[in-house]
């Protein structure tokens, strides 16, 4: 059974930082691409960042220079370091893993106050 467990969300003031974590079990983590999406109220889910098995990364334009995605294959964990947070970053953040199939975490709320 594949499980993705996210943590690290919360309430932060604009300009602050948070680090999200997503620990995966039930798959061979090292051969799976990983990433984070987010969904704000009334908006479509959007890709925030992704990281391949080889460590290549992609970011949404809105978070470039502020967010950093990384992975620790020894811990089966992917991270999203978020800095210089803005109120428009407020959303539920979901991690995913993509191999032969795609699996999703339950989501973690990030709220940025102005």
Could you explain the architecture of this structure?
With 114 residues, the protein is mainly β. It is globular and about 40 Å long. The model has no long low-confidence stretch (mean pLDDT 95). Strands 2, 4, 5, 6, 9, 10 and 11 form a 7-stranded mixed sheet that branches. A hairpin with a 3-residue loop joins β9 (91-98) and β10. The protein contains no helices and 11 strands.
Summing up helix and strand content along with how strands pair, one would put the structural category as mainly beta
The 3D shape can be described as globular
Radius of gyration: 13 Å
Average pLDDT value? 95
The percent of residues in helical segments reads: under 10%
Beta strands, count: 11
Order of helices and strands: EEEEEEEEEEE
Strand content: over 45%
What distance lies between the first and last C-alpha atoms, to the nearest angstrom?
40 Å
Low-pLDDT stretches: none
Number of DSSP helices? 0
Taking the sheet with the most strands, its summary is: 7 strands, mixed
Question: Summed up, what is this model?
Answer:
Helices cover 0% and strands 54% of the residues. The protein has 114 residues and is mostly beta strands.
């Amino acid at each position: 059974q594949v499980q993705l467990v996210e943590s690290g969300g919360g309430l932060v003031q604009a300009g602050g930082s948070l680090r999200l974590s997503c620990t995966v079990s039930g798959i061979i983590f090292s051969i799976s691409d990983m990433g984070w999406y987010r969904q704000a109220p009334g908006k479509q889910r959007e890709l925030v960042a992704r990281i391949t098995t080889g460590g290549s990364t992609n970011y949404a334009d809105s978070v470039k220079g502020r967010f950093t995605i990384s992975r620790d294959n020894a811990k089966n964990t992917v991270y999203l370091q978020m800095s210089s947070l803005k109120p428009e970053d407020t959303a539920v953040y979901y991690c995913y893993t993509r191999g032969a199939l795609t699996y999703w975490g339950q989501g973690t709320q990030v709220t940025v106050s102005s």
